[in-house]
Amino acid sequence: MRLDPRFLFTLYATFSVLFVTGAGWLLADQLKEAPGTGDAWQTTAAYLLMLHGGTAMMTLMLLGALVPLHVRRAWQSRRNRLTGPAMLMFNGVLIATSFGLYYAGSEVVRPWISDIHIGLGLCLPALFFVHVLVGRRGP
Question: The whole model's pTM is what?
Answer without folding.
Answer: 0.91
